[in-house]
TrEMBL record:
Gene: Chst12
Transmembrane portions of the chain: 7-26
Family: Belongs to the sulfotransferase 2 family.
Record localization: Golgi apparatus membrane
Stored InterPro entries: Carb_sulfotrans_8-10, Sulfotransferase
Record key words, sorted: Carbohydrate metabolism, Glycoprotein, Golgi apparatus, Membrane, Signal-anchor, Transferase, Transmembrane, Transmembrane helix
Protein topology in the membrane: Single-pass type II membrane protein
Species lineage: Eukaryota, Metazoa, Chordata, Craniata, Vertebrata
Organism from which the protein derives: Grantiella picta
Protein name per Swiss-Prot or TrEMBL: Carbohydrate sulfotransferase
Enzyme class name: transferase
An example Gene Ontology molecular-function term: sulfotransferase activity
Top-level taxon of the source organism: Eukaryota
Signal peptide (from-to): none
């Protein structure tokens, strides 16, 4: 009897110890601080999602995690919220003279005459177009048919998560991503200025905005959650509000070229400009610094840039840089069901409407856009000296982005 009692007591103690270990583990990885404040549900109509609602059709592990998260929400509903991300100190204000931050380019108009009904219809149409072409078996492009589980972790680094408000943003470079990252920093309180979270997006210095340690992205989940990473991603993708902003693909390329090769950029000169100048302009013995190169009149031409994009060797050596990588490769729109699709061409209206839907429009406003940003009307001039076969190849390279996001085929550039 004594041995049996000791055995039972040992089992009880071990069980208690294991429960305590599990509690400590989950607290360490931050699960107790998930906030599922999704502002509107799929497919069309806005509406808050209750944290305790039934999470149907989830696998066993997902269901367990879902219940755990819901339980944590109830237990912490009266406690101050804590950001899940690492808080980074940053006290420097942005430099006013920064070329890309020059206040003269800002449009400070409030646009209070927006029609919310029109915006809602616009979203329905954009999402319908995306879903139809993702489901259309006759329209194909690389990676279209793979599942979310097939996406390598390193390809998920553009999905930024704000657990405080239940928001996931896929950022696309050259589509107002700097200011959207600023908004995500303010919402998630992931950056401190002298011990206090930033409240005004424009106060956040540019160098901190693009510091990867500032943002919680999907590709960081493996370090935080280990084998539960994909399960947690799926739960968040199901419950959180997911959005992205896109742009006419050819105009985005022009903007990327202007930003990275017409301005002095040491990193892009060494990584990209030197190889382009050697391969496509037959230059040798190039200067080692961008300032010397610019002083000698050695600059990458737009033609060099297009040749680089079309050269099969480019992709074999490394994936496209994020500034000209296709949106379907950055944000996986056929694997992720986005709740909101914004466009740079309607940035002011789309941004204001999105912040209203997220119910954060009283906390902040989206930083005003640039009046002098690259215009669609510039396409004809920029592509005038690009041979027709190159333009046609380039369109095929970016065709999925044109089609999925409803941009018209640039027929004037693709015919004699």
């Amino acid at each position: 009897m004594t041995k049996a009692r000791l055995l039972r007591l040992s089992v009880v103690l071990v069980s208690i110890f294991m429960i305590l270990l599990i509690i400590v583990y989950w607290d360490n990885v931050g699960t107790a601080h998930f906030y599922l404040h999704t502002s509107f549900s799929r497919p069309h109509s806005p509406g808050a999602i209750a944290a305790g609602e039934d999470w149907d059709a989830l696998p066993d592990v997902d269901e367990f995690l879902a219940k755990l998260l819901s339980s944590s929400l109830k237990q912490n509903s009266s406690m101050p919220r804590k950001t899940e991300q690492l808080l980074v100190q940053g006290s420097n204000k942005p430099v006013v003279s920064n070329l890309e931050e020059n206040v003269r380019g800002y449009d400070w108009s409030t646009h209070k005459d927006r029609n919310s009904l029109d915006q809602e219809k616009l979203q329905v149409e954009r999402q319908r177009t995306l879903r139809e072409f993702c489901a259309n078996s006759s329209f194909t492009f690389p990676t279209k048919e793979r599942s979310f589980d097939d996406i390598p972790n390193y390809e998920l680094n553009h999905l930024i998560v704000d657990d405080r408000h239940g928001v996931i943003y896929c950022y696309v470079p050259k589509v107002a991503c700097t200011n959207w990252k600023r908004v995500m920093i303010v919402l998630s309180e992931s950056l401190l200025d002298q011990g206090v979270p930033y409240r005004n997006p424009l106060d956040i210095p540019r160098e901190h905005v693009h510091n990867t340690s500032t943002h919680l992205t999907f590709n960081k989940f493996w370090r935080r959650y280990g084998k539960f990473s994909r399960h947690l991603m799926k739960i968040k993708l199901k419950k959180y509000t997911k959005f992205l902003f896109v742009r006419d693909p050819f105009v985005r390329l022009i903007s990327a070229f202007r930003s990275k090769f017409e301005l002095e950029n040491e990193e892009f000169y060494r990584r990209f400009a030197i190889p382009m100048l050697k391969l496509y302009s037959n230059h040798t013995n190039l200067p080692t610094s961008v300032s010397e190169a610019f002083g000698a009149g050695l600059k990458v031409s737009f033609s060099d840039f297009i040749q680089y994009l079309l050269d099969p060797r480019t992709e074999r050596m490394a994936p496209f840089n994020e500034h000209w990588r296709q949106v379907y490769r950055l944000c996986h729109p056929c694997q992720i069901d986005y709740d909101f699709i914004g466009k740079l061409e309607t940035l002011d209206e789309d941004a204001a409407y999105l912040l209203q839907l997220l119910k954060v429009d009283r906390l902040l406003r989206f930083p005003p856009s640039y009046r002098n940003r690259t215009a669609s009307s510039w396409e004809d001039n920029w592509f005038a000296k690009i041979p027709l076969p190159w333009r046609q190849q380039l369109y095929k390279l970016y065709e999925a982005d044109f089609v999925l996001f409803g941009y018209p085929k640039p027929e004037n550039l693709l015919k004699d």
